[in-house]
Amino acid sequence: MGGVSDASVPPWGHEMKFTLLTHFKEFEKPSNTGRLVLDVLGDAAVQVRWDRLNPPAGFVEEIEAGGVALVYPGAPDESDDDLTGINHFVIIDGTWHEARKIHQRSPYLLKLRRVCLKPAGKSLYNLRKNQKEACLCTAECVIEILRATGRIGDAERLMERFLAFIRPPGIMRGAVPGH
């Protein structure tokens, strides 16, 4: 699909990067939405396998250089939804249970500024059971960030792919033969 189109880069012009820090179990799951992000955003997104002991090469240096934030649900009193000055977003790509463990077991992630998204509505993701009420899947997080930073064209392309990827509302895994 290629990279980010010029039409979707806002006037302030900085490039945006997404790192999907992915739990090893997610690579083979057909319900993983990280691959949609990679397909739509091309070079602006990278997927790396999480390793507790060995962070991705160069990643810690990028964190220390600044402009990097972790998209992660916060406590009810946390409300950092200001995306100003961030040009690199890290999203833990896995189930919420896996994401919590990855966050707690990665000292380099604990150093990152955390941002909490304030989505306009509930998650539409319906490919897994027991989803957390207020949490978004990986693709939805990226869509929210793209919208909030003025990259509407990329947000719309990713939303279109995402809507085609999920099941029609009301149909959960195993509810209908063939789904």
Written overview of the protein:
The protein is of the alpha/beta class. Helix content is 30%, strand content 13%. It is built from six helices and five strands. The protein has a five-stranded parallel beta sheet with strand order 2-1-4-3-5. α1 packs across α6 (152-165) and α5 runs antiparallel to α6 (152-165). The radius of gyration is 16 Å and the shape is globular. Residues 1-13 and 173-179 have low confidence and may be disordered.
The chain-level mean pLDDT equals: 79
State which percent range the strand residues make up. 5-15%
Radius of gyration: 16 Å
> Main beta sheet: strand number and arrangement?
5 strands, parallel
Fraction of residues in H or I helices: 25-40%
Report the uncertain regions: 1-13, 173-179
Question: How do the strands of the widest beta sheet line up side by side?
Answer: 2-1-4-3-5
Number of strands: 5
Query: What oligomerization state is this entry in?
Result: single chain
- Given the helix and strand composition, which structural class is it? alpha/beta
- Summed up, the helix count is 6
**H and E string:** EHEHEEHHEHH
